[in-house]
Amino acid sequence: MTGNCRLFRGFIILLLLCLLMGCWDSDEIDNLAIVIGSGFDIVNDGQAEATVQIASPTGFPSAGNGGTEISPYLSLSEKGADSSEIINSMQQQLSRRFFLGHRQVIIFGEEYARHGIDQFIDLFMRSPDSRYTGYVLTAYGISAKDVLNASYVFENIPAIAINKMQEEGNALGTLVGEFIASLASDEKTTVTGAIRIVETGAAGNVYRIDHAAVYRENSLAGFLNEEQMKMLLWLKGKLQGSMMSIQFEPKSDKFRGKVGIVFFKSDAKIDVRLENEIPHVAVQMKAKAKMMNNDTPVNMGINENLQQLEKKFVEKIENTLNNILETAQKEWKVDIFDFAEEIHVQHPQFWKNTKDQWLELYPKVPVSFQIELEIQNTGRTQAPAHFKK
């Protein structure tokens, strides 16, 4: 009897394994229109326009040269009143099933983002085969369609180039999963990298992701410039590899007067204390950097000069942080540094009682910054004769 039971169990396990190995609802790759990137814009009639890049392993005939030139992707745009209408119109033009499982980037055009991103993206972002590990970006000064239709000099498919730029980590990167979570959170602000085209030519275009887009209540509130974006990366613990420069000396015939550094270590800590039921926030930020260039006659190998350089960088950083805070509190009313999250952790009862009024309370919150910067590796083992003492 025992032997029969073991035989029966073995048969059941073998049957289950056979079932697991089967792909009953799978599609052959030749039957899929694989979307690598998608974007959303608002057009003049108020409708949404979606643009997709669809990759092909064999290439698509292009419109030029009698259709003989082969393109590695197809760019397709459609307008509609809602996402279902748009995707249905696109599907009617394709011999393969629309598939979002390999999408690497989603881009919102600036006008679309300012209009509000809720209405048309649900199907594209919440589809069962939609990829949550791709990146969300906002187009800076242009449309998403312009970005996705611009060929890139180093990659055959522009969406792949954009994805690789985000993975390099030198700009703010927001994954689809992080983006959706921040939209639903009371404690985290929605921020994405902002992309623009800075160079065009016969060989292709060059992108830059050197701004950050800040959202409030699912609409674009404004942009952070490159220096401001780096401060946000610092608070998020992602400053490593970022560069910064200052005008240390007046420009002359021989020298531009600039000094540049690259950060290789950073840390940030936020402390919150309550006074008369008002949070007071103290932000401590520490970083270490090495010198990248010194286009001045000043010898940074001398300790006093190096300390003066560190002081000037700290002044610039403090001014940048205070400018961000002024805009975020007074103009955007956006908790850009996610102070709410720290208040929740450090003072949970206070947060429970006030979270519904946080956006009204936030502009009144006093914030102080304490910056410590150490510049190492000045790169000069012997000072040239022209250096100032």
TrEMBL record:
Location in the cell? Membrane
One BP term from GO: spore germination
Spell out the InterPro entries in the cross-references: GerAC_N (IPR057336), Spore_GerAC-like (IPR008844), Spore_GerAC-like_C (IPR046953), Spore_GerAC_C_sf (IPR038501)
The lineage's top-level taxon is Bacteria
Q: What Pfam families does the database record attribute to this sequence?
A: Spore_GerAC, Spore_GerAC_N
Chief localization: membrane
Q: Tell me the protein family, please.
A: Belongs to the GerABKC lipoprotein family.
PANTHER family assigned: SPORE GERMINATION PROTEIN B3
The name of this protein is Spore germination protein KC
Q: Which organism encodes this protein?
A: Evansella caseinilytica
